[in-house]
């Protein structure tokens, strides 16, 4: 996520923008740079745990799987890092000192990858317009959230391994997988709704929060 964002951050910096990058104290790539200032916040895990989780996540991508267990294996593998990301987000949103600095800085916009909801929640908390640099959800809900067309008759869903030229049975399967996407989104991100409700002091429906994004930059083809 950061590698995609870094190039844009550097270009914005060269155009004269002052940029602050929120950085957990334990990370892999978010080093010092002349292009931005780092705002560092603490997290309750160490470098070894971070690297071990990423190694497991990467290794499991190459594990053998079948159609019947592919979704379950993918979910369990994603949770290896998503659980860590949630802890990371919780640490940030409960860090009153960091939040105070962000409020006082009076930024013009917040730039985030919304595959993780933390930046989406933070933009709402700070009352800032947000720009999403996005690779996509594992459940295609960016199309529902942004109200862009994504017909199941022509566009294969994640994990089906179908092409855009599907047979009739494949189209039926694609249609059924589409119904599972909302449930998958809930399983992956429901904890963030409680986190958002606590900081925003109101009930939060996460897909509704996503619709407050000002600009979506969808980056599917690398």
From TrEMBL:
One Gene Ontology cellular component annotation held by this UniProt entry: membrane
Q: Note the Pfam families from the entry.
A: UDPGT
Q: Where the protein is mainly located, per its record?
A: membrane
Q: Which Gene3D superfamilies match?
A: Glycogen Phosphorylase B (3.40.50.2000)
- Note the InterPro entries from the entry: UDP-glycosyltransferase, UDP_glucos_trans
Q: Where in the cell is it found?
A: Membrane
Q: How does it sit in the membrane?
A: Single-pass membrane protein
UniProt keyword list: Glycosyltransferase, Membrane, Transferase, Transmembrane, Transmembrane helix
Q: Does the keyword Protease apply?
A: no
Which is one GO molecular function term here?
UDP-glycosyltransferase activity
Query: What family is this?
Result: Belongs to the UDP-glycosyltransferase family.
Q: Which PANTHER family does the protein's record reference?
A: EG:EG0003.4 PROTEIN-RELATED (PTHR48043), UDP GLUCURONOSYLTRANSFERASE FAMILY 1 MEMBER A1 (PTHR48043:SF161)
Please state what the protein is called: UDP-glucuronosyltransferase 1A6
What species was this sequence derived from?
Vulpes vulpes
What gene codes for this chain?
UGT1A6
């Amino acid at each position: 996520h950061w590698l995609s964002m870094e190039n844009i951050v550097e270009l914005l910096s060269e155009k004269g923008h002052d940029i602050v990058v929120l950085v957990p104290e334990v990370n892999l790539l978010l080093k010092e740079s002349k292009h931005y200032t780092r705002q560092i916040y603490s997290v309750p895990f160490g470098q070894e745990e971070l690297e071990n989780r990423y190694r497991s996540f990467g290794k499991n991508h190459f594990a053998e799987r079948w159609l019947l267990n592919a979704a379950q294996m993918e979910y369990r593998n994603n949770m290896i890092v998503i659980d860590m990301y949630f802890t990371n987000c919780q640490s940030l949103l409960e860090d009153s000192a960091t939040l105070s600095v962000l409020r006082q800085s009076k930024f013009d916009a917040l730039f985030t990858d919304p595959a993780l909801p933390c930046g989406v929640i933070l933009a709402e908390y700070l009352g800032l317009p947000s720009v999403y640099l996005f690779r996509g959800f594992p459940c295609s809900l960016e199309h529902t959230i942004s109200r862009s067309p994504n017909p199941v008759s022509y566009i294969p869903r994640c994990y089906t391994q179908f092409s855009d030229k599907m047979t009739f049975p494949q189209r039926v399967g694609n249609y059924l997988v589409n119904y599972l996407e909302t449930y998958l989104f809930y399983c992956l991100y429901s904890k963030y709704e409680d986190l958002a409700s606590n900081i925003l002091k109101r009930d939060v429906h996460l897909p509704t929060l996503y619709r407050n994004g000002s600009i979506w930059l969808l980056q599917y083809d690398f």
